[in-house]
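New to this. Help decode the following:
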Amino acid sequence: MSNLQRLLDAAESRCTGSLLFDFGGYHLRFYSNSTALITALRSYYRYFLATVDSAEDAVVVGLQMPVPEIDGDWQTIVPAAGKPHPKEALLTLATGTLVRKLNSDLHTFISADIGTERRVCFGDLQANLNQLINIINNVHLDALLSTSGQLLHAAGVCKGQFGLALAGKSGQGKSTLALRLLQRGMNLVSNDRLVVQRQAEQQVMHGIAKYPRINPGTIVHQPELRGMLAPADMARYEAMSFADLWLLEDKYDALIEPAFGVEFVLHSSLQMFIALDWDHTSTESCRLEPCLPQDCPQLVETVMKAPDIGLPRAHARIPAAVLATYTDVLSQCPCFVLSGGVDFDRAADLVLDYVSSISKT
């Protein structure tokens, strides 16, 4: 590790730029030796750049550099249930932990020092910007989960302080439904990860600054997003059937502030939970029906997400996702199932009708 540390220290000494992000009062400083990375992250996080200088709660250093040979007892991380291939390997060192992404060869050193959270990531970061964004957001997420709360695999939106969470299996359309609700004036709390905590007799949810990664079908059917595609791509996607669009895996980052004129607020109360259990091949009408979490464990399981090695403090506190814990968390607010055929506009109307009825009581 000493040779690697000297190499990293030398690369870090050549860092020429930095950015300070403000994630709802949590300040993270990013340093890099790459002007291209600074430019790309300034664009991505343009609505989260700190407007005044503040002491940082965490530091991430991003080094664009070749990865040297790193010998040691690397441990391949067993993938979660349902995931076919391992994605990460781990090397435990006296001064911290080194995590390697197997598909991209990105490395992240997580320091074991007590104090300001600090991570150093290195490799071809410019070619793997989305993974770098995940590393940055994981630092914030780990801080949120370090002392209390539960991690949910869910999107969150809010209207005023009325917040609701949307969950479902991968590909069920929770991001698309969240965007339909933004189209109708709601704000975004989080696209895919929520931390739910009990505060002052109510449940609150915190999000991270990761924009929805949407497929072409979502863009084609939402006017606010159509400018994201080149005309030739738009024409190609428009010629495809709904079923074929549904199966596409192409992804685009949707910056919601300019598209919808709404805010990415990162915090709200949690007063409604919706599990998506609909079927895009069904001809039945879309329905929103109340449910009890204890009666539908298979839907509760869709929201369960154990903190992984990228969240070391949270993983130490919550080593595994437990069904009973999630059932208890979701039992603290009204829960609903969205079933029948897939109809995003009708689903958004049903949700907003419920929100309106609550606000009148």
About this structure: The first strand starts at residue 17 and ends at 23. The first helix runs from residue 2 to 12. The chain has twelve helices and 20 strands. Residues 52 and 131 are 27 Å apart (CA to CA).
